[in-house]
Each structure stands twice: as C-alpha cells, then as structure tokens.
Design goal:
Length: about 450
Amino acid sequence: MSVFIVDPATRPLSGTIDVPGDKSLGHRALLFSLLTRAPVRIRGLGGGADNGRTARAITQLGATVTRDGDAVVVQGTGLRAMQAPAAAIDCGNSGTTIRMLCGLLAGQPFRSELFGDESLSKRPMRRVIDPLRAMGAHITGAGSTSGQSDDGGASADVVPPLAIGPLSERLRGADHGLAIASAQVKTALILAGLQAGGVTRITEPGPSRDHTERLLAAMGAPITTRGREVIVSPDAWSEAGAALELPGGAIDVPGDPSSSAFLVAAALVAGADTVVCRGVCVNPTRTGFLDVLAAMGASIAIENPRDVGGEPVADLVIRGAAPELRATEVSGDVTVRAIDEVPILAAIASRAKGVTVFRDAEELRVKESDRIATTVAMLRAFGVECEARPDGLVVAGTPGRPLSPGRVDSASDHRIAMAGSILALAAGGPSRIDDVGNVATSFPSFVSVMSTLGASLHQEP
Ligand code: S3P
C-alpha cells in the first residue's frame, strides 16, 4: 500500500496548473460517444482510472477507443447496435460508471453483468434499480449491505454485482420523483428514457450536476429541462432512427473543479505568491465549494471566463498570504453543489476561526468510503476537534496554530487521501497518509502538480 509523506509548507505556493479533465464529463464524453455512429475526438480526458473503466466498458459494448496524441478517438455503435459484452464489466471503484451503465443497459436486448472493487461492492444501487424497474427493466443485485457506520450509516440496500436484462420489449416512460439529488441516478434514467416508449420525467430535490442534460441535448437528444425537472420525449426521435451526433465530432473536457478544489485549498492553507488553476469547469452545479470559501472570507478570482463544449470554464486565481478565514454553515443546495468537496472544505474549516457546521450531507455516508466518518478520522489525526453528525459534521477551527503532524488512513478513498495531504501542509512536522493508491482514480498527477506548486509531498511504495 503506497503512502504520501508530506512536509509542512515553509513558503507560499506558486505556479500555473492546467487542471486535468473533469471526471464526470470524461465519463459522459466516453459513454455518449458509444451512442453515436460518427467518430468522436475527446480532448483533455483526465487520465484517471475511473474514466479508464468507462473507456473499457464501451469497448466491451462494441466501441473502438484509440489514442491519437493527446486525444482519445471513439468509434461508437449508435444506441441500437451495441454488442452484448462477452464478459462481465468491471467498473472498478467507479459509482458513476456502474450507475450510468445500469440505465443504458436496462433498455438493451442482451444480458450484461456489472461488478466493482470492494468499495463499489458496498455502494447502494436500489436508488437506480427501483426506478428502472418501474420502467420495465430487469435488474437483480447481489443481496444487501447493512450500514457502514454506527452513527447514521446506510440501511439495507441492493449492491453489486448486478445482472441486467435481456429486455424483450421496450422500456416504458415513467415519472420519477427522486428522493435524493443524484446526477448518477438522473443520468441512468435519462439513458433509459431515451430507449423507452413515451415520456420520462425526472424531478430532483436539489441541483445535482447537469452535464448529462447539456451534452446529450447538444447531441440532438430529445431532452428539455424545466427548473429541477428533466423531460425526455423520445417517440418522434426514436421513430426517426434515434441518431445522436456530437457537433464538430469533437469534445474538449474542461478541468475538474473537484480536483482544482485541492489546489485552491493548498494555496489557502499555505499561502500563495500566485496560484493559477487554468481551464476549470465552473458549471454552477459544481461550484458550491467556491461559494463556501467566499463565505469563509477567501478571495478567489475567477478570471478569463469562456465556454468550452457547452460548459462554462474559467481560471481560478489565488494570491497572497494564507487568509484569515471564518467559520460558516454549509447546508441545503450548497451541500449538493459541493458534495464531493466536503472533505477538503472540512480540512479548510479547521484553519478558520469558529465552528463550521456541514448539514444535509448524509449522502457522504455512501461515497467511496463513509466520508463523514473518514473525514472526521482524518481531521482528528491532526488533532482537530470535530464531531460526526448523522447528516454531516462539525469542525472547530484553530487558525494560526500549527496542527499536530498526522498519520491518516485514507480508507482507500482518493478524496480523503488528498484532503489529508493538503491539511498536512499546516502541521508542525512531517505527516504520513496511508493507502493513497486510489488518488489515481481521479487525479493521477496530484503528486507532481503539488510539487510544481512548491509543496514537499512524495509518494513511497
Ligand atoms: C457524479 C455525481 C455525484 C458525485 C460523483 C460523480 C457524476 O454522485 O458525488 O462523484 O458524475 O454524476 P451522485 O450522483 O451520487 O450525487
């Protein structure tokens, strides 16, 4: 199991980073390219293992994926000419891969099987299986899991491996009122809705990321949105051949805001001459962390705004000494828009004056780890006073005072490993982060990027 050794920051960070491609958009670019018959050139894929799982999955379904310089070229099959996979599809650690595939494969006339690693094999699938079954899908899972933690963990659910199909008739459109805001579930239902007879409507309780709606609509899919409702009206489109095509045959994946959050945090914790995170997706469904940091008193300039492939993109710029931050409350829609950033925001909260409260974040219990429990354990490893709550956590900040050097168990969770590494910059001596291999699922260049910025962080096998 590899480890990171991180030294405290002794000088302000500095540098310009081209942030690797967004993981969420990478999954969608790959999967939706399978659904087109013209080749698609994808530039700027982040290179993480999770996107690699989606790339391999689409080859099992009949696409060819080739590298051409910096780009990946996908020759898809179209929605109606996919191949039955010859073997079960390994989704690795990737919840997005398995849940999106559920919706796509639910409408296909062949049988498929999906499985994943130890962490994915504990993640709840009922949220996607139940609404797909209501559309006529045949999906079975491997039984149930019980809660992952004592204080408010997940209840019994269906978990991978999953068996899907074969479907002899078409799926039926349905109205879904989701109990949880989830872009993965929404995407699965949109993909099923495209293959169904009749209209599918999906309404969510909060603003989950909308990359699927943007990209599929740009490809000519019959999708409209009205507030938090997504409407898929496939009948006429389906009768006309169900063709999808990416305008220009190419897509540029902008930088991952979730990865950039660690770099922004590093610049806030250690101080910055100038740190520039270039080309970051600033889709408003992803920028909750910037709103939280603004509420804490951080000043992050959003420069050079532009549009890249239908997504708003900008450079994030941090200048100056580590700012005096104040505690805040993170709840409601902001929590949804910052859900993957709670571990790093909690790390920053430990450097802010006062007590920061994170609410409405029960979804963190069922991410790559129980992120409420693992974030609390990570913070405590540095001597931070904090407490888990069923729907979030409470963090007491001690600004200015160096933290105790930490030894963090990342619990094989990439975001815990990276959040611990950033907080280690504020410790009074070297810290050690254990079990960091999974950083490669989303941000394989994390160590080299941190070194470019001037941090002393190295990986040991
Ligand atoms: C993702 C959606 C979110 C997020 C995950 C990626 C996506 O999960 O936490 O990292 O790409 O659709 P939920 O759909 O469970 O909210």
